[in-house]
Every structure is written in C-alpha cells, then in structure tokens.
Amino acid sequence: MSVPDLNAVSGYLLALQDNICAALEHEDDGGEFREDRWSRDPADASGLGGGGRSRVLENGSVFEKAGVNFSHVSGQSLPPSATAHRPELAGKPFHALGVSLVIHPRNPYVPTSHMNVRFFCAGDATTPGTSPLELSTSGAASAAPTWWFGGGFDLTPYYGFAEDCVHWHRTARDACFPHGADLYPRFKKWCDDYFFLKHRNEARGIGGIFFDDFNALGTNASFAFLRSVGDAFLPAYLPIVQRRKATPFGEREREFQLYRRGRYVEFNLVWDRGTHFGLQSGGRTESILMSLPPLVSWRYDYHAKPDTPEARLTELFLKPRDWASLTDPQLSALNSQLT
Amino acid sequence: MSVPDLNAVSGYLLALQDNICAALEHEDDGGEFREDRWSRDPADASGLGGGGRSRVLENGSVFEKAGVNFSHVSGQSLPPSATAHRPELAGKPFHALGVSLVIHPRNPYVPTSHMNVRFFCAGDATTPGTSPLELSTSGAASAAPTWWFGGGFDLTPYYGFAEDCVHWHRTARDACFPHGADLYPRFKKWCDDYFFLKHRNEARGIGGIFFDDFNALGTNASFAFLRSVGDAFLPAYLPIVQRRKATPFGEREREFQLYRRGRYVEFNLVWDRGTHFGLQSGGRTESILMSLPPLVSWRYDYHAKPDTPEARLTELFLKPRDWASLTDPQLSALNSQLT
C-alpha cells in the first residue's frame, strides 16, 4: 500500500484551516483570527522538527474563543513513549500533521465544538528532509512505511436541543456513508467511548465521530474519507450557531455555561491522551491549551434543580443516543420532555 | 518500631480541621463553612471503606473559596496501582487519613495557599474493623506494619511581596527546626521540585515544605513533627491574609488573578499525583476537585508587559529562592526591584 502524498495532505489541511477560519470570522461579524506561525528547530533536545500556524479568535461577538491550529511535526526517530502500542515504530523517522480546533461560543445556547483531522506516517522511507514527493514514491518502493489518518468532531451543548443533535449526527453520518456503511456506527460509538469523563460518569457532550489508525480503505479512499470528515465540520456546526446565537440569555445561563466549561477542562487535562501526553512530553503548551475555555467556574457539589433545562442536559443529552436515527415521533416525544 | 496510635492521629487531624475552619471563618467575617459528611460502603466495587468531612466556604468576603477536608479511607487490600513504588504492600490492609486544604482568596493581593497533613499505614496487623487501639497494639507485636506521615504547605501569590515570602518560609523553617536541622532544607527543596509545572517551566508558587514517606524520627517524634507542621499553617498564612486583604484592586489585578489561577488548575489536573490518581481510580470527585478555583480564565499566549508587577511575579518570585535566609540588605535590594 503506497503512502498518501504528504504534499497533498498538507495542502488539504492548510486549505481547511483557511476555510474554517474565514467562515467563523464571517459568522462572528467582527472577530478576527490572529495567527502565530511557529517553528521548531530539529536540533533541539527533543529531536523534533516542524512548525505550525496557530490561529485564535478571542472576544468575538459570537465566539468568545476559537482556536484553529495547523501543525506539522517530524523527526528522525520516533520516541518510544509515542509508540507504546506500536513498539516496532520506535526509532523510525515520522511525520505527524493535522488541523485541530475548539470553539467556545459566548452565548450559552450555542454549543462548544471540537474537530480534528490528522495524518501520521512513520517508517524507513519517511526520511525528514526529503521532499514529500520523494517520501511517497520511495515509501512505496522500499519497506512499507506505516501510516494512518485520525480525527473526528464532537459537540458539547450547555442547553440541549434535540433537533441540533439530530442535525449534527446526520451530517456526520452523511459524511461517512459514501465511504462505507459501517463507518458512522463504529466511529460514533468510538466517540461516545472516548469523550467520557469517568470521574463524573458522564459524557462530555452529545458526541459525533472519532477514529484513529485509519487506513483500511487504502491510500486514496482513506484520504478521501478524511477530507469528507474535515469538509463536514462547517455544515454540521454553522447551522446550529446560526439558529442559537441570538437567543436571549441572562446570568443563570451564563453561570451554568461557565460551570459546565469546567467539565471541558477536566476532560482535556485529565483524560484526553493528546493533551496530557503533549504537555508531559514537551509539546507547544500554548497551542495545546488553546482548547481551554476563556472563562470557567467550579462550584462544590453543584446539582441542577430538578425539572430545569440544566438538569435535562445531563438527564437527556449527556448519555449516548442514536441521534441520527431519531424518527419524527421520537423527536416530538423528546421535545415534549424539554418544555 | 510501633505504629502511631490511629485514634490519636485521627483526633489530631479532626481538631486541626476544626481549628483551621474556625480561624478562617473569623478572618472572613461573614463566610461560613458548610459540611458534607460522607461515607463509603466497604462492600462497594472498589473494596474501600471510610468516610470524611468535606467543608467548603464559598463566596466569603475574604475567601472566594476555601475547602478544608478530612478523610479516612481504609480497606482490606491495598490496590496494586496505589503501591507502584512499594509492591510488597499490594494486597495488605491499610488506613489512609489526612486533612487537605486549598484557599482561594478574593483579593488578588492575597495568595492562594495549600496545606496537607496525612498518615498512612498498611500491614497484616492493620485489620479494618479492629479498633485503632488494637491496631497499634497488635501492630507492635506482630510483623511490623509499614506507616508514614506526609504533607506540607505551599503558597501561590499573584502579586509578590518579599516580606510575605520570608514570613511564610521562616514559619515553615521554625516548625521544622526543633525536629531536626536538616528537615526544612530537604523539605523546602522537595516542595520546589514537586510544585513545578514542567510544561510552563515555572514554579507553581513560592513553595514551602513538602514531605512524604516520613517515619525517620520514630513513632512519637514523627507524629510530633506532623503536628508541628499542621499547627504552623495558620501562623504562616493568616498574617499575610491580614496584611493584604484590604489592598484596593481593580479589573487589571482581578484579570491577572483569574489568569494565574489557570496555572493552579493545570498543575492539579496534569501534574499532581494525588489529584490525577484520585480521579482516575474512583476517588470522591467533589472532594478532590474542591481544590479548583471558583473562577478561572485562559488567554492564548499571554505575556505580562515588561516592568510590571505581573511580569515580576514570574521573574522574581516563581523561581526557587532561599527566602528564609534572606538578609535585611537582600530584602531591601529585592524590594527596590519591585517598585
């Protein structure tokens, strides 16, 4: 199996970052992304090279904080700690690139969202310093390098709206379906399993899709699937933003939003393998922590009052549910519990 | 070596919790602790029994959030995950008890503080269900159980005042000195090493003392040392609170405080072994996370402006320094850099 063309993957990811930032700025109507280009000298102690474009929009009218990062890290020798489940890759040259975003809206009725698409390849043919074209060509000819795609997107509402969840999951399902009927159900469950706070026995949000180590469709079709996921993010998220961003809210909703954002921090710092590993292993701290909300509160032993929208969030939304298959009568029944 | 009397240790810890809560309420002049008594059925899946008194003061006039917890956990069989560095203890009955506190003041000129004193014992004689007296008596007679004390206190200022740091560390030093001249230097360094954010290359605060696995002085004198540490917390902290709590402050100081509190969250959720292990292994989430600040902010790639008190915090205070030995001329020289 040949290796996906590194130039093509990189080009897609950079364009995706551009498109998403432009759409979010347009939606925000005032907020602007500022960009930090960073690069890392491969001669430093970590032996890693690479760089990235970190982009952040802070204090927008719609988005209180949105971080959309592109990064491309490579090295001559994959550290053993990064390959615990694939020891045969330790010491091999590698490339890891991706786009990762987290959006924290201002209005508590607009959900927080997260998306990530990434590509990883390692192997003897993956020599840093050679051109990406050489890589993919020589990679096909010599001992086959290992490569895969990963990513997905998930949604974290503060106030639950069944139709938003249905739209989100149907968009995810439709992005997966042309590439295989089994993909959405598998990756939907993977998402539910991954974005789960064990210490709260609670889902982080209403899920979406999550996948890793993906090369099952071969070089071209696996990359096409990744693009389908990346391209589906805006159609999945923007209609929900547009529908909710003008909903009036007060102190009560704001306080609940700040409280629930604490769960986001807890997940990212305690359970998210990428974040935790990145911080412990010398990743670029500011880019990694761009996912953290701009303002967060913790209250001791808070419980929402029964029969409130705040209580319904955990009761009805933060439990895995087959949102994409919800029939109209089921949707109506659910909505009747919400009012 | 006989085992410290479990009743005596427990009695001391409960009284310490009472004293500290009463003193903080008095200092706050309005805020009140509310108590959650909790207990854990030893018959549950974890095989752990025990209980605690969690106390929290929220929205006080001086203390925005103060959590002061007592807990006593015991079990028939120590889980292997809890004894990675002492595999010989796996499967033994054990007791773990302690008082832990974190105080987040409202005024940014008052530092956040943390204190913990704890006792652990494990071994064949440490049979849960037997009375503490039986435990210590039979423990002395049969195969010696393993036991130790641990704890310490550390201070996290938002705005640095050299005289506060000197007072804090001299109080710590004076609490250690009667028990051994080497204790303060060793435990001061241990504290600096432990409360360090590697991903920021920055100390959490100005330190204090930290120790663990401590039984070197024998049964009675080790317990006396623990009491000396526990009893020193209020004399170390309250004078600083009293000196700073009426300092006028505005939005700028408040924003800096909320930003710096992010570091506290990052340390506790990413690096603190107790917190991380507790959350991952099924500890009582609300008690563990009582340490988190009430309100926190994250800003992308924030840097304090040069020559401001905010910049001086990291430049002059968040680096290990021998505060206790600072001479008056050194203190004057440092103070001249602060104005």
What is the helix/strand order of chain A? HEEEEEHEHHEEEHHHHEHH
**What would the principal axes of the Cα set say about the shape of chain A?**
globular
Find the structural class of chain A using helix and strand composition: alpha+beta
Gyration radius of chain A, to the nearest Å?
20 Å
Identify the biggest protein-protein contact and residues per side.
A-B, 35 and 35 residues
The overall pLDDT of chain A, averaged over residues, is 90
Strands of the widest sheet of chain A, in order across it, are 1-2-3-4-5-6-9
Unreliable residue stretches of chain A: 127-142
Distance between the termini of chain A: 54 Å
Tally of individual helices of chain A? 10
**Beta-strand fraction estimate of chain A:** 15-25%
What does this structure look like?
The structure is a homodimer of 339-residue chains. Chain A has 339 residues and is of the alpha+beta class. In chain A, 41% of the residues lie in helices and 24% in strands. Chain A is built from ten helices and ten strands. In chain A, the strands form two sheets. The first copy, chain A, has a seven-stranded antiparallel beta sheet with strand order 1-2-3-4-5-6-9. In chain A, strands 7-8 form a two-stranded antiparallel sheet. In chain A, a hairpin with a 6-residue loop joins strand 4 (94-105) and strand 5. Chain A starts with 5 loop residues before the first helix and ends with a helix. The A-B interface holds A 36, 54, 56, 58, 65, 67, 198-200, 258, 262, 265-266, 269-270, 276, 279-280, 282-283, 285-286, 288-290, 292-301 and B 36, 54, 56, 58, 65, 67, 198-200, 258, 262, 265-266, 269-270, 276, 279-280, 282-283, 285-286, 288-290, 292-301.
